[in-house]
Amino acid sequence: MRIITRAATDDERGLGRSGVTADDDAIRLIARLANGDARSGLNILELAVSLAQAAKADRVTEALIHEAAQRKALLYDKAGEEHYNLISALHKSLRDSDPDASLYWLGRMLESGEEPLYVARRLVRFASEDVGNADPMALRLTLDAKDAYHFLGTPEGELALAQAVCYLALAPKSNAVYTAWNAVTQDIHEKPAEPVPLHIRNAPTGLMANLGYGKGYEYAHDAPDALVSQEHLPDALRGRIYYRPTDRGAEHEIALRLKKWREWRDAHRRP
Predict the structure, then answer these.
(1) Do 165 and 124 meet the contact criterion of CB atoms below 8 Å apart?
(2) CB of 90 within 8 A of CB of 114?
(3) Most CB contacts within 10 A, which of 38, 42, 65, 216?
(4) pTM: predicted TM-score of the whole model, two decimal places
(5) Peptide bond just before 195 cis, omega within 30 deg
(6) With the CA atoms of 57, 61, 63 and 64 taken in that order, what torsion angle do they form, in degrees rounded to the nearest 10?
(7) Rounded to whole angstroms, what are the CA distances from 270 to 228, 229, 265, 266?
(8) Which residues pair with 59 in a beta bridge?
(9) Per-residue pLDDT tens for 58-116?
(10) 32: closest CA among 62, 75, 52?
(11) Could you give the CA distance from residue 154 to residue 167 in angstroms, rounded to a whole number?
(12) Which sequence spans correspond to the domains of the chain?
């Protein structure tokens, strides 16, 4: 309370020249709403004084303090913990297919002053990471939502972000591409960088052809059903499987096609 009182009355470093006063009851209420956090109390005081000035009032009232406290609760440091708490809440609500909670956390972020294009970027990332090929349209729709916000701005463009959030929440989920990509990058970092197999190398010169570049390459379009059994990975990774599609959404059909292709390849694979 002493800190808040000093801030309210200091003419040089505080709000003493604002023309708005705060009595003991007001300061006591601010301290209580701030839960003893001086920085939080100073933020509430500053907001309450600004609201009083906007209303052309000469003192901070209980109603103004409660309004300031409510607004303060929405504000957060964009580089701090609450920033990451809110984006985590949005991401997990989307992943768990809860459109109501997803819309709420989107609203909290936007009302708190979060940059809408940052939110749009997170939605695009979610479309690839958590929806993936279970609904390939999710990525396109989130990119369209980003463009719509960029074109319309606030507040009209926020509706496009809300539309994308609802779509993502209700879309079938798959992290198969995300998991496959992580496995690929892990192998690249941990295993030797083996050369490209000779038969799938390009051979633009005669010398390269004589060295075996492209020798034995099978052109898929000339094969029945465009199916070939040649190996495309380095020897140390022969037979490695990265992409394991789920049976959800559009990825179900992808999984069936991939299973059929892998079975055919294994049956016809050269020793």
Answers:
(1) no
(2) no
(3) 65
(4) 0.68
(5) no
(6) 60
(7) 11, 7, 9, 9
(8) 21
(9) 889 999 898 888 766 555 555 567 778 889 999 999 999 999 999 999 998 887 778 89
(10) 62
(11) 20
(12) 2-74, 81-170, 176-268
